[in-house]
Batch of 2 targets.
Target 1
Amino acid sequence: MPCVIVKSRHPYGYEDEICCNTLNAMMRIVASDVIHYHSAPWIYRILAGRIRYLDYSMARTLRKSVVWHFHGHEIRGQPVEKRPPQFDCPAIVSTPDLLRYLPDATWIPNAADPELFYPRKMSHPKTIVGCYDSPNPYVKHFSPVAETLAAVRELQRNGKRIDVRILSGYKHQEVPEYFQQIDIWIDKFGMDFYGLCALEASLCEIPVVTQIGEPEQSLIPSCPFTTTERCEIKQTIEYLLDEDVRKELGKKGAEFTKRFHDPVRAADKCLKLYRS
């Protein structure tokens, strides 16, 4: 029976997480066939350092199937000496820009759940722009909140019926309701690829504005997300004030995400790695 084990509960975490200490985690590992680690900053200090993390060492000793899964914050922007060493088990990355740091890893595109995120039913008297903010300095670095707020204020001064709704402090189960309240999603900028929120917004048929690097664009030529730079966010939002344009891009985005970021497709790729 699959379970998600965490050492401490994340404020925006999932309902099915099991919070337990190291001893209980090790007992669960003994009874498991596969251990799928989602990485965190401490992984560097342990795997690249002198000591081995206890439950990881035990899993390898018991010849369990182990995979490491990196999501970005542990690798992106890290000095070379702090990047992960070569692993003795398969590694997964969530976004293709991370292959620059882990060229031997397998890219499995993030999965988005179409049962949780679906086209919105609410109509809004104003065009609502959504953007993510966080007190976490790492996340804030990639979040163009300041540029988005400045763009919306200028458009408001020009008589446009527009407003901003910031995604911050929501638990994961509350995020689907948030996406029912916006018309345009401004994703993270500067990491050369889009994040999970972009996929969740697109399943709600909300057009996504993001930044994608040239090498990454070549991997997803059919991606209909609107790519731009921080300095052009205002012009991009202004372009998306046209409701017909938003509807067209929103439908294309939902179709793309359902096809390319399908949870079953991602699960199949994980199963192949588990068996390798």
Target 2
Amino acid sequence: MPGHVTAEAEAESRSDADGTATTRVTIDPSSGCRDLEQRIVRFAPGRSNMRGGGSREELLFVLSGRGALVLDGEEYRLEPETGVYVAPGARYEVENPGPDDLVLVSVLALEPANLRPRGEERRVTVRLTEQEAFPAGRDREFRFGVDADTVTQFVGSIPPGRAKPHYHEYEEVAYVLGGEGLLHIGGERRRVSAGSCIHFPPREPHILENVGTETLRVLGVFHPAGDPSAAYNVAESEWEEKQ
């Protein structure tokens, strides 16, 4: 089917040699995603090996646990609902005081064509609760996560019910934070819930329906960077032909 749906448990687990991190790649080019790579990284108690250093931007989002990210000699607090920006070439360590794992969603984006001038201010961490909520359609809303050059990170909130079929110009990878949903895409339907990982190809019509009684919350990262609410409706007749 167009797009891809999986879960952390379905991806192969890779452990760092002598480190604290275990990584599962959930979405990458092998699943049809051209420009983004989504990973779930679990840090056991202790201090991780040095990470990063590549040419791509990395966006992190804390799912559970608490600790610190050590970047350029500075510590940044990590707690649930915190987004983190790691610039190309930057290297960092993750400190987990325990006793529980520190779990993050990591998305590797593209290498920026034009890097910001060194020293230009950029927020490394963003706490979602401190971000303003913006409308996305009639009854949905979203909050921006960290700022990046090539991609945008956000968390969307979907109330019970179903929106009209639509598509986006951007390519997106998403992680379901909570709630129960039904993804309609490519003439098929897939159940999604907390821990589901989704790839939305650009210009692919879809509906992410909330079939539960609680808010469906989704962490999204998309390329190119822009406005998460930029959506284009699909005529019902055209949608029905594809179902």
